[in-house]
Amino acid sequence: MEIRSLKLINFRNYESLELKFSPETNIIYGLNGMGKTNLVEAIYILGLTKTFRLGNENVIIKKGKNITKIEGLIMDNILNSYKIVVSDNGKHIKIDNNKISKVSDYITKVNVILFNPDDLKIIKDTPMTRRRLLNIEISGINKDYLLLLNNYNKLLKQRNSYLKALSKKNNFNSEFLNILTEELINTGLKIVDIRQAFIANINKYISDIYFKITNKGHLSLNYKSEYKNKTKDQLLNIYEKNISREIIMGKTLFGPQHDDIEFIVDKEIVKEFSSVGEQKNSVIAFKLAEIKNIEDNLNKKPILILDDLFSELDQEKINNILTLLDDKLQTFITTTEIDFVDPKLLAKSKIFHVINGKVKEE
Fold this sequence. Notes:
Elements: E1 2-11, E2 14-20, E3 25-29, H1 36-48, E4 67-76, E5 78-87, E6 90-95, E7 98-100, E8 112-115, H2 121-124, H3 127-139, H4 143-166, H5 174-203, H6 206-214, E9 219-224, H7 232-249, E10 260-265, E11 268-269, H8 270-273, H9 276-298, E12 303-307, H10 315-324, E13 331-335, H11 343-347, E14 349-355, E15 358-361
Helix pairs in contact: 4-5, 4-7, 5-7, 5-9, 6-9, 6-10
């Protein structure tokens, strides 16, 4: 899979821009604040329909404008045109000028793997950040997963609302609550099975990749779930035992909405014992293992984005990472300093210099 060209209108600090890319390595360089990350953000949005940055979705619209357009020609067996338009009236998605109404019908078509410095939050932040990571990455390879997740969240919201209502009553009819609980368990078990399979497949590759980057240590992911290795009957029993407490709290206290993953190197939790550099190595190893996972599940290569790869890593580890990249994998690398890039990599790359929302090919 590769993106052949990108066209932007009123996107971030770009008023109008058209670029053609190499099917192999593309290096985008320039000072901070010039718009390097904006370019790779646009590619990411084409794949997942939403930005990886925090904030209101409309912030991607150039200041003073009321609409932004992102369009790309993407080759995946055949060449298709992908287009995303965001305005005050909402977001519109098209493939070959055909409107796509369901996001789940779109996001498995263009697979983008991104490493961004903010991804260190995957390790440092709360379990919610890591669940969001799981949901985004699995949705990109499994169309059914997003539907299951949406259904689970609706059931959870409905059950929580009912529990809050029950907290204001002295007695209640348990029949409706039992129906909601059973549906929640059925859907939750399917979600946990998919998450568990995803983590298992990542673990097939991540240790070897991490070792090749660092020349030491073995990395693995530990999936933590209250549903893990439990039957439906066992879960029904747990909910029954906790019902009084749930009514008092007015919310569901048990389920996949509490899931988490731990990054572990040689039996030590990375979040607690590792340096920033080691955390970055762990996240990059995870992203590279995802490439293998996509190849296993979809039999194709994704587009890889390494945003600000060269910061906080020594030259040896950078070289080790670049050595792991497949020549047939379309890769985008952003950096502030092109002088530090290996001349061999520069020689086989297409280079773009970004200055104040203007891009020059070199």
